[in-house]
Amino acid sequence: MPSRGATDKSTGPASPRVRVRRRPARASYDLDKVHEILDESLMCHVGFVVDDQPYVLPTLHVRVGDSLLIHGSRRNRMFNLITDGAPVCVEATVLDGLAMGRSVLQNSVNYRSVVVLGTGTAIEDPEAKLERMLALVEKCIPGRLPDLRPLTDAELGSALLVSIPLDECSVKVRTGDGDDAAADRALPVWAGELPLRVTPGEPVPDEHVPAGTAVPEYLRLWGQGRTGV
């Protein structure tokens, strides 16, 4: 039978807050696995609370060392709350496939996910901030930086870059098929997994690109070498 979990028993949760309680056999607290999923996922979701109202917003992210970095405008409410010390929950998921069983409740998805709890700190040092902003671009579109106009001081100053330490985090992974009950396995229904991958389409230039301009090779090759792409 295929494995339906990915428990790493070499380390435990950093705190009770990040202990996985539902299907703990699928959990891991290995920081290497946290890094792997954050590096592969293209977006994360940030949860925060304003006046007792919870919100969840998507944003781009990049991992540098043992810190998760997200960025936005200085006028963004979420980022200002985070830098003021508000606690956050950040989640990132890589979707790996559709797991199909023979009954309604045994249809699921295979995934790898990370949950990070903590508080964020604004990175104000211009050199450190620029380095990490460039790392975010390089993560999303490897090879593009040499084509881009450099950031101006005003542009760099208008952005808010927040660092969240990976001190409290957990991984949860599901793999395998639909996990049918033994009595259902004789039913004449196809069951198994449909793997899913992020694959790029044909690049579409905007109206200001001069005629005859070649599509950059890094776009033609986007995704090659990325795990799960």
Automatic annotation (TrEMBL):
Pfam families per record: Pyridox_ox_2
InterPro entries (alphabetical): Pyridox_Oxase-rel, Split_barrel_FMN-bd
Region span, Disordered: 1-22
Superkingdom of origin organism: Bacteria
Name under which the protein is recorded: Pyridoxamine 5'-phosphate oxidase family protein
